[in-house]
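FW: tagging you since you asked about this chain on Friday. Here's the raw sequence from the shared folder, copied in full. Didn't touch anything.
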Amino acid sequence: MVLKPMFLYLSKNKVLNRGAKRWGLKMGAKQVIAGVTINDAMIAVRELNDKGLVATVDHVGEFITTREEALESADYCLQTLKAISETGVKCNLSLKLTQLGLDVERELCYQNMRKIVGKAEELGNFVRIDMEDSAHCQQTLDLLNELREEFPHSVGTVIQAYLYRASQDVTDLQGVNLRLVKGAYKEPSQIAIQDKKEIDDNYLAIIKQHLLSGSYTAIATHDHMIIDKVKTFCAEEGIPKTQFEFQMLYGFRKELQETIAKEGYTMRVYVPYGTDWYGYYMRRLAERPQNVSFVLRGLLSK
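HL: got it, structure written out here
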């Protein structure tokens, strides 16, 4: 746990982020980042599809501070949706609102999202709005609700179980395609559960809550005990495999991913790509101390 605050601190370091763009996929990052181009991402997704896995791709980015950067990021999202359609891979799109200008101008972000979700609906695809830190939570949900008035079936978001508000948010979003996660940001005790067991318990509770409401549920975890409990619960409650899916990160627990797919469950892999990979990578290292081994292997391979 000592390492988590350090990696979260490093993830926000703009100097290191700029340096990482020059370094390329080093420090072990190439093991968990699909590449830097859209074509790299499509190749990685095709390889996953060949193993019975589906995917969601994310053009990673941090520190968007100008209108021009937000528009460029939106264009990448549109190009990615086009590439998914043209290649025929089984894949959705994930994105962050701050990449699309939420911290620059809300209306800019909303208009970017309208174009992206509209294109996804036109192509028969789906867009997942990743949840960021608690400061952006309500803004994200408000924008989601606006988008769903126009595109009710083409956009969803993420709920983080460690936030005390999680259960109420799941209630409010009944019928929405949600990805449920434990939570990866460092949040104060006033708004977030700090104890690991309590987080796990709340995570399982909101998973069951959303499933029992009949809503499509994406269970995003590498925790095999949670996965086994969800399988058992769904079997006992008669919840069909078509109502939920499991999700994991690219480069992690590959054998488990393939095993889940072979069991007949939908197994979706979150595939990040792009030159702005540094912040994403640091947060993955913060989540689990075991992930530091990727850094060591990456450095030793040079």
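FW: The chain has one domain: 34-276.
HL: agreed, and Strands lie at 54-59, 91-95, 127-129, 155-160, 178-181, 217-220, 244-249, 267-273.
FW: great, closing this out.
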